[in-house]
Design goal:
single chain; alpha+beta
Length: 97
C-alpha cells in the first residue's frame, strides 16, 4: 500500500487472528481508507492478497456494516447480562411498538 504502519486491533468487534503452520490469517480484510492510497488487502496463511481499491460508496457501506456489527455485539452482550424481568419488559415494549 502506502508503506505506512497499520494498526489492526484484535477482539470480538474488530479483527480475529488465526495462527496456522504457514503463517497468520486476519479476518476481515484490512482497508486503509484513511491513507491516500486506500489500500485494501487480506492476510491469509501468512500471505498478503491485494484487493481492488474501493469506491467512496463501498467504503461508507463497509464502515456502516462494521458499526452495525459492533452495535449488535454489545447489545447482545448487554441482553445476556439482563435478568428475566428486564428481558421480558424489553420484549413487551418491542411488541407494543
Amino acid at each position: 500500500g502506502c508503506g505506512a504502519k497499520v494498526s489492526t486491533p484484535l477482539g470480538p468487534t474488530e479483527w480475529s487472528l488465526t495462527e496456522t503452520a504457514t503463517g497468520p490469517s486476519l479476518y476481515p480484510s484490512i482497508g486503509n481508507w484513511q491513507f491516500p492510497c486506500k489500500s485494501h488487502y487480506w492476510i491469509s496463511n501468512g500471505e498478503i492478497f491485494w484487493d481492488d481499491e474501493w469506491t467512496t460508496e463501498q467504503i461508507e457501506a463497509g464502515q456502516q456494516a462494521e458499526d452495525q456489527r459492533r452495535r449488535r455485539y454489545y447489545e447482545a452482550r448487554e441482553r445476556r447480562r439482563d435478568g428475566i424481568v428486564k428481558r421480558f419488559w424489553r420484549w413487551l415494549i418491542s411488541f407494543l411498538r
